[in-house]
Amino acid sequence: MTDRVLVSPAELFGDGVFETVHLRPDGPWLLDQHLARLARSAALLDLPLSLPTVSARVAALPSVTVASALRIIQTRESLHVAVSAIPATVLDERRTGIRVVSGAVGLRPPWSLAEAKTLSYGPNFAARRWARAQGATTSCG
């Protein structure tokens, strides 16, 4: 028997964009700025995005009683809007701080998506590995 794992092209190829918004009991924090960045990222990938649809989906969410994470994911096939707890590692970093390093980045090729928040996290994981090797602290990835 052959086991098959079915994944969407967006998951397999990272062909999508996302935003994570701090969701407070009084509503999403800086939602307009996050939606503007989501639109810029979607445009870089030539993805369809309807900001009125995203806004309506966010507005339809039930209110939260504790700070949470609102995640908006747009792919070629779908729009996902979900709320989850803020990871403990993030809350710990907010309390204790983090150590960061910076590195020079050469010229980017014209097709670079470095300015978009894409679902393709390979470059992000590589950067975290490099940062840890340089002495920075990273708790994710």
Describe this structure in words.
A four-stranded antiparallel β-sheet has the order 2-1-3-4. The protein is of the alpha+beta class and 141 residues long. Helix content is 35%, strand content 18%. The protein has helices at 9-13, 31-44, 51-59, 88-96, 122-133; strands at 16-24, 27-28, 68-75, 79-84. The relative contact order is 0.19. The protein has five helices and four strands; from the N terminus they run αββααββαα.
Quick structural gist:
This protein is an alpha+beta fold. Helices cover 35% and strands 18% of the residues.
Notable traits:
alpha+beta, globular, 4 strands, four-stranded antiparallel sheet, 141 residues
Unreliable spans: none
Q: N-to-C SSE series?
A: HEEHHEEHH
Q: What is the number of helices?
A: 5
What is the radius of gyration computed over CA atoms, rounded to a whole number of angstroms? 17 Å
Please state how the strands of the largest beta sheet are arranged side by side. 2-1-3-4
Number of DSSP E strands: 4
What is the general shape?
Answer: globular
Q: Look at the helices and sheets and give the structural class.
A: alpha+beta
Beta content comes to 15-25%
Oligomer: single chain
DSSP helix fraction: 25-40%
Termini Cα gap:
33 Å
Largest sheet: 4 strands, antiparallel
Mean pLDDT across every amino acid position:
89
List the helices and strands and how they pair.
Layout: H1 9-13, E1 16-24, E2 27-28, H2 31-44, H3 51-59, E3 68-75, E4 79-84, H4 88-96, H5 122-133
Antiparallel strand pairs: 1-2, 1-3, 3-4
